[in-house]
Each structure stands twice: as structure tokens, then as C-alpha cells.
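Weekly sync notes, structure subgroup
Attendees: PM, AL, DS (notes)

Item 1: joint prediction request from the bench team. They want all two components modeled as one assembly rather than separately. Inputs as received:
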Amino acid sequence: MQYVEIYHLENDGTQKVVVVCRLSDDNSVLCVGDEALVKRFSQEGIKDYSIKPSRRIFPKDGKIFLEQLKYNLTSGYLNASDVLK
Amino acid sequence: MGPESDLSVQSVRPETITQPGHPKLLDAVRNWLTKKPSLNEGENIIEDIFDERERPLLGRIKRIGRLGGGINKTFRVIFEDGKIGVFKPATGERKSKSKLVQERRPVGTYFKRERAAYLLDRIIGFDLIPPTIIRSIGRRKVGSLQEFIPDTTNSIDNTPQSELYKLWILDYILFHPDRMYNTLAKGNKVFAIDNGFAFSNTGVSFQSRTEFYKAPPSPELVEMLDIFVKDAKSRQMLRDKLSPLLSASELAACEARIVHVNKLLIQKGQIDNGSELPYHPI
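Output from the run, pasted for the record:
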């Protein structure tokens, strides 16, 4: 099962996993965890930087969504892991 | 997640600090450094500070640890007074497999763009970007160090529209390609973080906000921009501060955007669509 962890930088300087996004058998992605963030993924999506011009992608777009998370969440406050197995 | 580690540290070199135009502040920093010789190794501040808000970032560092995730390496910095910063070393900047992401953005410049974005924010008066300096930490890792803002949320649902409009205009001036998840909210205030990709013309368009097309800006925003544009000294200060951090063409395009958006807001009182917001307005 391929998945991506999303880390949030807490007030004490530690990182906490706030959302986990997993690739389902039907090639869609299911994200669970912080409600506000999960809602934003579904409603606003993220940018797909692998094509030009970049486009907006959503969890329903499957593996590409997982792969692009780490290019969208890079601030330190919110970081995404590589695709993990 | 990355391993937590303490980095070795070296003595501070006060002679590397210059503060043209702010001799009192320079003296204060020198006195402070003299009275409290650092036990840290490699804590060289490599660029002059701009205002007092940056002072906490000059503090003595207790611990630094790698943050997990992201394309580029990021670190949490914990100061002896308990405050936290986010450090992004130049050596941690990576080319990505998604070529488009960093196309035409030279690796090794992101930390300068972080500092340039903060300076622009301060000089014009947006007050949206947390204090960000350039310094080296342990093993001479030069990078950007930004104040961590505690108790923030990634949800901007309750943020005043005037604040988000202001952020939109700042992002156009920075030509920031991806503000979506790089906005923090705390009460009525927003913070614009992660500006390492700002200022460059990468083929990834500035991320516009269609909900503000044809909407009027706040009078305060219009006044702030107009004061800056009409003040030759402020504009020269911006050039002086940003020229070591950006290419000449990037700086020229940025200044053109400031003048252009000010003209739009003064003359039309609104922005009609994204085509009115080019990278380098003529």
C-alpha cells in the first residue's frame, strides 16, 4: 500500500503526522487526519508540477496526487514525505 | 522523519556584521555579542539585519534538527530562549524530478529569495512575512532562517477578505507561484511563508485569486502602495537591499510589477483578470 505522511511543525518544535494519504486499489487517494487539510485537498486540490502548464489535481487523480504532495507542501510548517510503501 | 542532531558551533564574528544607516542598532548588536560570547560554532551572521524584529533570529542556538518531508532540506532551530525558527540551507536545495517545478530557478538561490521577499514586505509595509534573515549555522551551512509563528492554522476561512486581498497583491509583486498551502492564519492575521520560489519567471504563472477580480482593494492598501511608488528613497532602498539577492532582470521585473499594480488600483480601482498581471509589465 503506497502512502504519504504529512507532517505539521508543532509549537514545541516537534513534527506530528497530521494527515496520511493512501492509494486505494481503484487508484484514488484517501486522506485521513486533520479535517481542514483533508477538506482543502478535496476542494482546492494541489498543483501538478510534472506537466506544463501545471494543473490542479485532486485525491481522485490517484498516484500522481500522492507523488506531487511533497512538491506542494515544502514550508517546514507543513511537509509531505516521499511516497512510502 | 529526519534525525534530530546537535550541530557543532563556532564563535560569532561581529566584524562580519554591517549595518549602513543604522549605527545605533549595529552598536547594540556588537555590544550584545561582546557581552555574551557565543558558545556556538559557526553561527556567523552573514548579512546585516534590517530591523529590530529580526533580532531574536540572531540569538544563541540550543539545538537544530532536520524536519521530515519536503523536496528541500528544512531544519527546526531551537534558540536558548525557547523560540523556534525554520532554517533552509542552500546546500539543502534540490532539483526535483518534476522538472517544471524548478525550471529556471537556480538551485542555491532559494534562501536569498526568502530574505528578499521579507525585505520587500517590510520596505513596502505589507507586514505579512515573518522576519527572515540569512545566517550560517554549524558546519557553515548558509541559509534562510525564519521566525516560527506558533498557534497558527492552515485554514483561512475566517480571515478578513481585506487581508487576503493584500496577500494577493503581495504575491503578484513577488510573482509567487504557489501560495495555496503556504499561508498561515492566526486570528485576523495571515502570514505568507515559503517564499523560496518567488521573483522568478519559471513558466509557472503567478497564482492569481479569481475571487478578487473586479473587487475593490482597501483604501489602506492603495495608499500604502502609492506612498511607496512616489517615494524615491524607499524605492532606492528596495533596489539596494534586493540587488545582492536577485538578478538584475528579476529586480527590474519586480519593481515594474509594483508600479504596474499601483497604477491599476489607482486608475481603475480594480483588477479585471489575470492577464492584467504579467511577470514583467511594460
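Discussion: Strands of chain A lie at 3-9, 15-23, 29-33, 46-48, 55-57, 78-80.
Action: AL to compare against the crosslinking data before next sync.
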